[in-house]
Amino acid sequence: MEAGQISGTYGELSGFSVPVSGEVREKKLLEVCIYTVTTGWTQVDLVRGSRLHYTQDWTLISDANDHRSFRNILPSGPPTPVSAELLSRRSPVGHLRAVVRETGGHQLLEIWDPHGLRKCLDLTSLSKHGRVYDEAQFGCLSWSDCENKVLYVAEKAKERSSDPVSTTIFTDRNVYREDWGEALTNQSVPVICVVDLRSGTLSVLEGVPSDVSAGQALWAPGGQSLYFVGWYHEPFRLGLKFCSNRRSALFRLDLNGNCERLSEDNVSVSCPRLCPDGSTIIYLQGAVFGPHSQCLSLQQMDLKRMKTSTLIEVVDRPQTGEFAGVYEALASCCWSEDGQRVVFSSACRNYRDVFVVDRRSKKVSSISDKSVRVYGGWKLLTIHRDLMVVCCSSPNTPPTLVRQHTLLETDMSEPVKSYDFHWTSLDVVPSPEEDNSAYSGLDFGAVLVKPTTSLTEAKIPVVVFIHGWSLSADINQLLTEPITWSFSLFVSSVNYRGSTGFGQDSILSLIGQIGSQDVKDVQRAVLTALQTDPALDPKRLAVIGGSHGGFLTCHLLGQYPDFYRAGASRNPVINAATLLGTSDIMDWRYTSVGLQFSYDQIPSAVALTTMLQRSPITHAAQIKAPVLLMLGAKDRRVSPHQGLELYKALKSRGSDVRVLWFPDDGHSLSRVDTQADCFLSTVLWLQQHL
């Protein structure tokens, strides 16, 4: 492709809309029941350099006495743009909507009814708290069942001087405030806030333990108490984004300030969800420390007897073709109508599926048809009266909405376009020499995407994509960059041992083996792909990755210097020893190399040596391929100086190396303009060197 074609193709693919939320409203008439499905979408706009948000409605009509039989699905109307909404939630009955909106530097709480705006509070002017939290880690917006109260979480207000002469001076202006790390840098001390809609009063609840940061709150039945997840922040905070291994617990707090812990101690907890009748609450539970993405158990608590039991156990080693465990957050609505089943999405080997667990039998079943892999990635958006709204996609099909009821499936939205690629899932078995004796017999996988026909008679170059630690590699769903490459390149995305979706044993097998087992797994997957497809060019290979994937990219370039022709790495770990004091997840720096972590730990020569020996910097002198480094200056997880350390090592040896520096971006390099720049720069880099 020419540069203009590449830019146009990237613009087309990155501009596909993605559904991110859903809700269902129901209206009963004499003979029919009308469901309105409202979905929230995001879309990249390269002209504005931003992400747009909009909603779209579908109308489903069923027989009044048979909710599983739909007479018709009416086409959706034009999308409705959503402006400056931080949080939005419909009331239990469905006639009211609460919205937290930011405009003119102020945050407002709006209450809407069928006739328009009913009430609006200027939260900023009330000065009861700081900014409202709008992200998934702490953020929430919950209605009481009487629809008279709304709660949310915000930053605690800064203390002011008691001196009447200097009432505008903050007493703690220059005091260091801990935060929760990467992507949560403005969040330090959350508070739970309640608005009484009858009186219009706003109150900040007391009673949350002083060593706990509260979030993910929801009302208990009756509206006189609430449940929340509390993350322990003593002796100091560690990074929380993408980390399901932080010590936390489920608490109950009443409006009088009485608080009690409901879950076990010394575990991690997230995603509390009440069943429809309010008798049971479920939540995800995991281990503290260790890998920051793990297989989780699903717990259920009988709120009348106050007894907790395990609904889904941690899956150590799944059987072939069977459920592999829970690895993802629960949807906000995940209960069946009768309260006997819970629906959730999770990675399963190289795929993402939607599963349902029956509370009576504890049996877990997949709702997707594995015999026909039209879609590789399934994600539950919401469920209402057993009507599930699911987002589906595959490497050659943009996100599509599917209406799912038991085992009946109907497309609600037609894919905008599908692409002429061949994609498949590859299972890879390590060689006997590469087997991990402590976790023997584990395999891993890869997702392969290939143009159906080569653009030339020459063999097809290969690009190897390597995911970071926090999620399973590029599941079989539409991902903009790998698919754009697939117009002229063969793409291999590798799920090395340690990836989620393959059981807890696979994750734990990587502890103490980074820089070795994972590197060999990627290389083994590439060799397997080359052996199975003679159309691939073994002399034209490039490797690309970010975070831990960037770490592996640099390892591969150094450990196999004559194998790869070019590499590109985003915010890579280069020297784990020098990263120790600057990363927001310093516990992982110890754990990853097989060492125990404790808060009061002082680095030792042995620990630092072990970290250094596992790092790509030890192989820098062997790197021959040209290297492109893309670094976010605001990265709190992997300091951008890690990349600069490799840059200097290569530059001093006369190697071909280039750095892209993004002053306003962090670890994920997620700004729209950053992503476009990274992709196009990588394309030109590979065109030049591959």
Automatic annotation (TrEMBL):
Statement: the UniProt record of this protein carries the keyword Transcription regulation: no
A GO MF label: serine-type endopeptidase activity
Subcellular location: Cytoplasm
Any Pfam family hit: APEH_N
N-terminal signal peptide: none
Reactions listed under catalytic activity: Cleavage of an N-acetyl or N-formyl amino acid from the N-terminus of a polypeptide
The keyword Cytoplasm is assigned to this record: yes
Domain Acylamino-acid-releasing enzyme N-terminal intervals: 43-413
Record key words, sorted: Cytoplasm, Hydrolase
Gene3D superfamilies for the chain: alpha/beta hydrolase
GO biological process, one term: proteolysis
Domain Peptidase S9 prolyl oligopeptidase catalytic per the UniProt entry, residue ranges: 491-690
Annotated family: Belongs to the peptidase S9C family.
Subunit structure: Homotetramer.
Name by which UniProt lists this protein: acylaminoacyl-peptidase
